[in-house]
Amino acid sequence: MLPILITYILSISLSNALPFFNSSLPNPESVVHHFHRRLSDSTRRLQSTPQSNCLTGNPIDDCWRCDPNWSNNRQRLADCGIGFGRGALGGKGGRIYVVTDSSDRDAVNPTPGTLRHAVIQDEPLWIVFASSMRIRLKQELLVNSFKTIDGRGSEVHIAGGPCITLQYVSHVIIHGVRVYDCVPGGEADVRSSPTHFGWRTKSDGDGISIYGGRDIWIDHVSLSHCADGLIDAIMGSTAITISNSYFSHHDEVMLLGHSDDYLPDTAMQVTIAFNRFGEGLVQRMPRCRLGYIHVVNNDYTEWEMYAIGGSANPTINSQGNRYTAPGDNNAKEVTKRVDTEEGDWGGWNWRTEGDVMVNGAFFVPSGEGLALRYAKAASVDPKSAGLVDQLTGFAGAWGQPRGNTLNAVSNGGGDGGGGSGTGGYLGMVFGGSGYSESTRLYVSPIHWRKVIGLDDLLNDHYEEKIRLEEKEAKKRRQKRYDSDEDDDRARDGKEALLSRFVADCQKQAKKSIAF
């Protein structure tokens, strides 16, 4: 009783100093019901339109992506959120701001048309990009409240400099961008609004840093290779959803809470849904300290140390995920209680429900498992883990080849540039340059024909191999090899190649399929 009383008194005393401390959702049950309803609606639409080339059962994507005129109604995205961050408005109702200049020459007096000039404005803005571009920031990008950064339709790379900071702001949506190679900034003046700039100390080098923020939604973002975390949410941040994103090539992926002793983080509520945790990851997917964390329908394909960790009695509700353990027999456990003895964490509420464990993965639960306790962690019947492929099949920024965040756009940089890619649906999936031998595509095998046109893809990809095999057969006949065998090989080459490829699809259905 005493700790509860202390927390209540502290919340009152800190209300002025921490404007977003009292930011946990007042009715978490409403979030649960909303999430469940959206999942059910999406499934029903998918089942009623079996010939659709668009619907996947992912309630966020199905909410907007199947509209062929989505680019004329971009702000509909704000109505598609789920989980604890579903209330994030972003720039809904505000003007469309078109970023035309990829430069970032002055962090105090940004040039109109740049991303920095857009995000510091006081009014709600829906920020889009005139073309594909690579933005190398000079200092942290301090985003003001009521902003949407919408990268759909372009390949937007924020890389090679300090990256994104959301400090004591609310109602921010970040969608469809690539964030990587982030480095520390600071020791400089940086503008945060039209009327304020100030001295910034050295930053950590996170991809996206949420500091005392609320009503934040990060969706379809590709993150990798940052100096510190890919996403950190600290200092009483809450009402956050991280969805449909793709994480790769990083050590400490996601931190929720910076100190075991920081009581405002007991109100933290975060939903982590439909993400893919890909190659080259080590730990912290996420690493929690306090609060309530709902981990639902994600695909964990690789880790070196552990996937989900915690240290100060966070409530972790893991449902409908797929955990694929690494080959190392000493790293099969999904969970890790960080710097805590078993006698201390035995009462923590961590549960696994409907998760699929692959390659020897195992989740160590704890606590009593009472449903009431998990209500604040968005306890809800999720999609079956068997649907994880199709739910996460397009995780990451649209058009982002999996595992290749560094080479898609090479032009641009700190002083401008960037180029445009091809449009259309396949452009969104594969990027402007199409697919190549290095492209890694992850998509449900049952959606090959429906989503990307299996027959055309196979024909295009294997035409050259078939032609070469026929050519080799002719050469062998000229050298008086067995002509009957060569004729059979030439005649059956295409059928055999297609058969082998389909068999490989079935065999590798739960893994990335590399072309």
Automatic annotation (TrEMBL):
<dbReference type="InterPro" id="IPR012334">
    <property type="entry name" value="Pectin_lyas_fold"/>
</dbReference>
<feature type="signal peptide">
    <location>
        <begin position="1"/>
        <end position="17"/>
    </location>
</feature>
<comment type="similarity">
    <text>Belongs to the polysaccharide lyase 1 family.</text>
</comment>
<dbReference type="InterPro" id="IPR018082">
    <property type="entry name" value="AmbAllergen"/>
</dbReference>
<keyword id="KW-0732">Signal</keyword>
<protein>
    <recommendedName>
        <fullName>Pectate lyase</fullName>
        <ecNumber>4.2.2.2</ecNumber>
    </recommendedName>
</protein>
<feature type="domain" description="Pectate lyase">
    <location>
        <begin position="132"/>
        <end position="329"/>
    </location>
</feature>
<dbReference type="Pfam" id="PF00544">
    <property type="entry name" value="Pectate_lyase_4"/>
</dbReference>
<dbReference type="GO" id="GO:0046872">
    <property type="term" value="F:metal ion binding"/>
</dbReference>
<dbReference type="InterPro" id="IPR045032">
    <property type="entry name" value="PEL"/>
</dbReference>
<keyword id="KW-0456">Lyase</keyword>
<keyword id="KW-0479">Metal-binding</keyword>
<dbReference type="GO" id="GO:0030570">
    <property type="term" value="F:pectate lyase activity"/>
</dbReference>
<dbReference type="InterPro" id="IPR011050">
    <property type="entry name" value="Pectin_lyase_fold/virulence"/>
</dbReference>
<feature type="region of interest" description="Disordered">
    <location>
        <begin position="469"/>
        <end position="491"/>
    </location>
</feature>
<dbReference type="InterPro" id="IPR002022">
    <property type="entry name" value="Pec_lyase"/>
</dbReference>
<comment type="pathway">
    <text>Glycan metabolism; pectin degradation; 2-dehydro-3-deoxy-D-gluconate from pectin: step 2/5.</text>
</comment>
<keyword id="KW-0106">Calcium</keyword>
